[in-house]
Write a structure and sequence with these properties.
This protein is mainly alpha-helical and about 500 residues long. The chain has helices at about 1-155, 165-175, 190-255, 285-345, 350-355, 360-430, 435-480, 485-494.
């Protein structure tokens, strides 16, 4: 007992010390949690600040990079422009050197061709003299041949006693035919003399033929020399034209240098090609000229628009007057028709009372009755709308119920199909094929009966709804067809 008494206070002291330690640990934990939360918040604030600083620095870096990229792009444009201008200048210098060399070559060619033309002209002139001399020689030999013919005729034909034989002999002589077949009656001396004339004439004709052939050959050579001279003249003229063209191009190149211009895309009116656009025939136009032309175009266009507007207003006035005349004509015709109707109108007592104004009370009563009828019809329409709205709500509820029933039936069908499949499997496993087939047929028959019953129920519900709708429509049509009788019967009952 003493031990138990001693153990009691010690245990209490240990328990209190444990509770005190737990309280201290709890306080330390709360303090640590508070410090942790404070530190976490400080870190989060520091992280947000660092993130904002990083974003700001990134934005500054991006802006400076964009600015440097723009500067680099502009500098690249300028460098490329200067390189293009340099290439153009190099091409211009090379072209100028080629033009100078071509000009010197053309001048030398003109000098050479001129010298060759002078040589050809002298040769043609000298050869022309030789040709003329040869032609004179040919003419002289022809004259000698002709003199032989005349001498033959004078000595042998004119002084002959036998004129016919002499004429035949002369014909043979003209043909330069042999004198073997001479006519009889001529002296041997005449025949010998005729043979001598014939030999001489043949000899001279041979000389004439040789001279003529030589003359024709010389004439061909002269034509060739003249053609060569004309070709040299043509070559000289073509070379001089090339030289003039080259001089013109060189003068134009000296005052028309290629420049590199930086233009905006909207200021270029030249049709752009797919790869490289040819600006060889493009022209630079001052902006003030374009503005002046645009102003002139706008002014002329405004004048034309104002003229067209005046024409439009004038035509509009004409059409309006025509319409006004047509309207007045129609009003006149209408008034004439009304006058005619009034003149031909049959005046009755009712019309007299209406004209005198004694029928105002009756009209007021009719208006009051019509207003009551309108009120009744409005109320009836509101009631019908409410009834239809109620029917719509009922139909929607029925549709929802039908959908729920269909869902339940789908679940039942699925369960039945699963059961049938399981039973078929069990029958196949147990080996009772015939029994399983009978059970499956029975299950199929039950399923078909359930489906048929469900279809009949749905058909009956649909027909019931149609009958209800037809009844309500019949009641509505009856109420619409005989409203006055119902109203009268209600009044009689009252």
């Amino acid at each position: 007992k003493e031990e138990k008494v001693k153990e009691g206070p010690a245990a209490e002291r240990e328990d209190s010390a444990y509770r005190h330690g737990a309280m201290l640990r709890k306080g330390e934990k709360k303090k640590l949690d508070l410090e942790k939360e404070t530190y976490t918040k400080a870190l989060e604030a520091e992280g947000k600040k660092l993130k904002a600083d990083i974003q700001e620095e990134s934005k500054k870096f991006d802006d400076s990079l964009q600015e440097l990229s723009s500067i680099r792009l502009k500098n690249d444009y300028k460098v490329y422009g200067l390189e293009l201008y340099k290439m153009n200048l190099i091409q211009a210098v090379v072209q100028e050197e080629d033009d100078i060399a071509s000009k010197a070559a053309l001048k030398q060619a003109v000098v050479d061709l001129t010298a060759r033309r002078e040589v050809a002209a002298r040769a043609a002139a000298e050869y022309k003299e030789e040709v003329d001399a040869t032609q004179k020689e040919v003419e002289a030999r022809r004259q000698e041949a002709a003199n032989i013919d005349r001498a033959f005729k004078r000595e042998l034909v004119d002084h002959s006693n036998n004129k016919e034989a002499a004429e035949l002999l002369f014909k043979l002589f003209k043909r330069r035919a042999p004198l073997d077949d001479v006519p009889p009656g001529l002296e041997p001396e005449v025949l010998e003399q005729a043979q001598a004339f014939l030999d001489e004439a043949v000899f001279h004709e041979g000389l004439v033929a040789e001279a003529q052939a030589q003359f024709e050959a010389m004439q061909d050579e002269l034509d060739r020399l003249v053609w060569a001279h004309s070709q040299l003249d043509q070559s000289i003229s073509e070379t001089e034209e090339e030289l003039v063209t080259l001089d013109t191009r060189m003068q134009k190149a000296g005052s028309d240098l290629d420049l590199v211009l930086e233009l905006k895309q909207g200021q270029i009116e030249v049709e752009q090609a797919a790869v490289v656009t040819d600006y060889s025939d493009a022209q630079m136009v001052d902006r003030h000229l374009i503005k002046a032309h645009n102003a002139a175009i706008i002014t002329r266009g405004s004048d034309k628009v104002s003229v067209l507007q005046e024409m439009l207003d004038f035509r509009k006035g004409i059409h309006q007057l025509q319409w006004e005349n047509q309207r007045l004509d129609l009003e006149e015709a209408e008034l004439l028709q009304r006058t005619k109707d009034l003149q031909l109108l049959r005046v009755t007592k009712t019309l007299q009372s209406v004209i005198k104004g004694s029928d105002e009370g009756k009209a007021a009563a009719e208006n009051l009755a019509l207003e009551k009828l309108i009120t009744y019809q409005s109320n009836l329409h509101a009631q019908r709308v409410a009834a239809k709205s109620k029917q719509v709500g009922v139909s929607r509820g029925q549709a929802r119920a039908t959908q729920r029933e269909n869902a339940e039936l789908d679940e039942d069908i699925f369960a039945l199909e699963s059961a049938v499949v399981e039973r078929q499997r069990l029958c196949e496993l147990q080996g009772g094929g015939n029994q399983g087939s009978a059970q499956s047929k029975k299950a199929t028959a039950v399923m078909s009966m359930v489906v048929t019953h469900r279809k009949l129920l749905d058909l009956a519900k649909a027909q019931t709804r149609e009958i209800e709708l037809m009844r309500s429509e019949l009641v509505r049509l009856r109420a619409r067809t005989f409203p006055s009788f119902t109203q009268l019967s209600n009044k009689g009952v009252a």
